[in-house]
Write a structure and sequence with these properties.
The chain is α/β, with parallel strands linked by helices. Helix content is 38%, strand content 12%. The protein has a single domain, classed as Amidase signature (AS) enzymes, CATH 3.90.1300. It is built from 15 helices and eleven strands. Helix 2 packs antiparallel against helix 3, helix 7 packs antiparallel against helix 15 and helix 9 packs across helix 12. Bound molecules: glutamine. The site of glutamine has 13 residues, from loops.
Amino acid sequence: MELFENTAVELSRLLRTKEVSAVDVVRSFLERIELLDPHLKAFIIRTPDMAFNTAKEVDNRRIRGEEMHPLAGVPVAIKDNISTLDLPTTCASRILENYIPPYDATVIAALKNVGMPFLGKTNMDEFAMGSSTENSAFFPTCNPWDLSRVPGGSSGGSAAAVSAAMAPLALGSDTGGSIRQPASFCGVTGLRPTYGRVSRYGLVAFASSLDQVGTITLTALDSALLLSLIAGYDPLDSTSLPGSEFDYTDDLEPDIKNLRVGLIKQHLSADFDQEVTDAVLKAASILEEYGAEVQEVSLPLTDYGLGAYYLIAPSEASSNLGRYDGVRYGYAVNGENIEDMFSRTRGEGFGPEVKRRIMIGTYALSAGYYDAYYLQAMKVRTLIRNDYKALFNDFDILLGAASPTPAFKIGEKTDDPLQMYLSDICNITDSLAGLPSLAVLSGIHSSGLPMGMQLTASPMQEIMLLKTANFFEKSRDFSPLRPVLEFSEGG
Ligand code: GLN
């Protein structure tokens, strides 16, 4: 078995028992990246020197007998909207193409602090707006299971990297599905934590009331390990939740018996791919078999959630993206006067989807329309929160699909933004409610592509999600878990 094939938990064990060095581990992943990434294009930049330097330092500290964190020496890939000191952070946008942050995001500082080598920054939809990674200003990323298909988005680079064993772990961000949908398209485990559980300080803002940093990993145990490191109160993020320090790896033994599971009716829609819904139903029956109580539940506002999200997120984006004016950050084009300069800078710097969002958002917030659009959307958001609250009086966990279909073809939805938006229908409502939600493999479609299911819990109950996902991973009766990728040396 090659080193790059291991889970993070296994790598951590191999490192602690000194069976391998951190330099060996880093080398294995970097070679894998060199071989595969020319085909998959998951990385915007690779950082081999930095990775080796961190690995060497970790090895030296271990030789000196220092006490190390379990993730010391375990490499990680980082979505390119998370600020990294002295390393480009482009958000896959021309406007930030040459931007190098003067500080680390809080989550980055946490990874550095324990000695996790950084493999590089991963591709994404521009400013995390999209569901396929095709909105990257640089290039699209391919799905490792089928190179003619998208990896999902917006954290498509991170999901493809973990799926293809180019990284054992990755950080992503999820505003309205950007971790869970790509995780499901690539057959890996994606966790969006409770809003406020992980610091947003240094995550480039898209829609601040929804944005959340989370994990993309091969297993629930790996996710637990990484989440324990990045979760916690941060005074630098005003929406950070107090007292959220927690060791999620304490006890992940699944206790399915008497678990109260709500099966979301709207995720069994006839509009969804039949095999996707069958896989969700099968998961429900496995839970029942092990003693869970499963009941169908309704989230009647699912459709309205999509409309509300696509008003709220663009509204916040239109305000957050005001800062890219050519004066303070990155790309700048000269003009006849200051207004002309702003307009040229933004006209050339932003791609079409970002411009579309800014226009929708500006419209929804403008005088005369605010009440009809933004305010209405916020009311729908409150109703959705209330619906979840009521459901969690009776249920521990909600089960549904992570996406209506498996991965679609590159180019299939690029001309139809509405179709693209619809691919997030399963992920939007829990985002609006700020709930923790996780996507995990539910089966393999007859096309050979992975399919995902989604588990959602009440605030701060990530442990429920991780335990249930761990249970499914243990009971899995299908293989392979990894895509088959055969490329010759040198591409
Ligand atoms: N696909 C959704 C959008 O385009 C969600 C993106 C995200 O979660 N960042 O807004």
